[in-house]
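Narrative of activities, Objective 1.

The group set out to show that a structural description can be obtained from nothing but a protein's sequence at a throughput compatible with the screening campaign. Below is one input-output pair from the validation batch, recorded exactly as produced.
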Amino acid sequence: MLELAVLGLLKERPMHGYQLSRELGDSLGGLWRVSYGSLYPTLRRLERDAAIESEAGDVRGARRKKVYRITSKGEQIFLELLQESPQDTQTEDARFRMRLAFFRYLPPETRIRLLERRRQALKERLSTIAESVRAGRGGSDAACRGCTRPAFRSIGEGMVVCVAGRLDPWSHVHALL
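Output recorded for this entry:
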C-alpha cells in the first residue's frame, strides 16, 4: 500500500524523500504514518523497477537531496494498484481510504465499480455482525451488546449507515460522480 501512496503523490508533482514523508502525513489526512526506514527502501525498489526515477536536487546541508518523479511505467502500476481487488477486510479498509484519496485519477465507471464493491463488502460485514448480535441476544448483557456498537459505527467508514436498511447510504455518492 505504501507503493500506491508514493506513486499517487509523485503523480501530483516531483518530491524528495522528506517532502513525501510530510505529504503522506499531511495531505492524506493522517491516513498514513510512515517511517524513513520503510519509505526509502520503497523508493529504491520503485526506482529499481523503473516506476520512478530520481535526479539530484538542491544541496541542503551536507547532502544533495534526490528528487523523485513518476515514470510512465509508474503511472501504469499506480492505476493497477488503485483498482486492485481486496485481499482481506482489515487491509481493504485501509486500502479503500487510500483509494479514496486518489479517486480523481479513476474514470467515473471505475469509481462506481469500486464503490459498489465496497458497498457489498460492508453490507456483508454488517449482516455478519447483525446475525452475531441476534444469535447472542438471549444471554447477552448490556455490556456485551455495547461491544458491538463500535463495529456498527466502523462499517460506515464515515458515511451514514442505517442499520434498518431503509436508507441507501450510497445514494449521495452517485450524484457526485
